[in-house]
Amino acid sequence: MSAPTPPRATLLDVQHVSHRYRLPRPGLLAPRPSVKVLHDICFSIWPGQSVGIVGESGAGKSTLARLIMALETPTSGRVRLLGRDLHAMPAAQLRLARADFQMVFQDPYSSLDPRQRIWRIVTEPLRALGQRDHALLQHKAAEMLERVGLQARDLQRYPHEFSGGQRQRIAIARALITRPRLIVADEPVSALDVTIQTQVLDLMLELKQTVGVSFLLISHDVAVIHHLCEELLVMHRGRIVERGSPAQVVQAPRHPYTKALIAAMPRIGQGRRHATTAEHDDDLI
Fold it and tell me: Fewer CB within a 10 Å sphere, N or C end of the chain?
């Protein structure tokens, strides 16, 4: 009789994460007020799976991304990657662990240092891990550029010589160079022309299928997440108010906010409606 298959371990576990931001004191002797921007967030990502988080500006999505990337520490709760509590690690150990999780930022025009050549930008994560072999760095940078549809000859160019879509491909190459298990992509196509958005999303889907990397995709657009992810989480005012497959959530939304959000969202390549009913004046952050 064959031995039972051991249970598969999760890649990322976000366990009861809440977060508060301190505000300036209203007076010299007054206590510092705070605002709670995340409320008991829980979800997991399995190896090879991609999860999308959708919500309007102020829902707390980018704050959650910073906590998952260990750029900030949650007020309460835990973030575990491959079973390791990221916020309990010593700094040196966390620096090495970052090889397993990388980030692609929203704005390809500000996330790439305009003073550096592309090879230095793409190899930044490797150099942060202590890699100093110049020939090896150049080789790996060329390999990553070709993987995202650019050419090795682009290594000596500067960011201003590329279009927005090409810059985001460079940012993806930088995230891939450590061969991470997880890439957190915070609004990766929102700054791009609609004609380029699908190209970048198709690249991410191809990388997921060929490299096996998982994505946590953060967006205000349901159509973007539908393109890439198996699971969709809807955030509103710092809470997850609905979850399910993108098709389930889009076709049969249950929460009133989800219904308003979907009604307000255009498809990729279409213009946004003038009235966005899911937006609120009291967004958190």
Answer: N
> Cβ atoms within 10 A of the Cβ of 70, count?
19
CA 238 to chain centre: 17
Whole-angstrom distance, CA of residue 52 vs CA of residue 246: 9
In a domain, 252, yes or no: yes
Beta strand 231-236 with 214-219 is: unpaired
Question: Which CATH number do you get for residue 99?
Answer: 3.40.50.300
Please write the tens of the pLDDT for every residue from 53-64.
999 888 999 999
Nearest-5° angle of CA 156, CA 160, CA 165?
100
Q: How far apart are CA 65 and CA 63, in angstroms?
A: 5
Computed from CA positions of residues 264, 16, 65, 98, in that sequence, does the dihedral angle turn out positive or negative?
Answer: negative
Q: Are 192 and 181 spatial neighbours (Cβ–Cβ below 8 Å)?
A: no
Q: How many domains does the chain have?
A: 1
Query: In which domain, by residue range, is 227 found?
Result: 12-24+32-264
The answer to whether 162 and 170 are in contact (CB under 8 A) is: yes
Structure confidence by residue, pLDDT tens digits, 143-185 = 999 999 999 999 999 999 999 999 999 999 999 999 999 999 9
| CA atoms of 67 and 18, how far apart (whole Å) | 10
Q: Is residue 285 assigned to a domain?
A: no
pTM of the model: 0.86
pLDDT at 6: 47
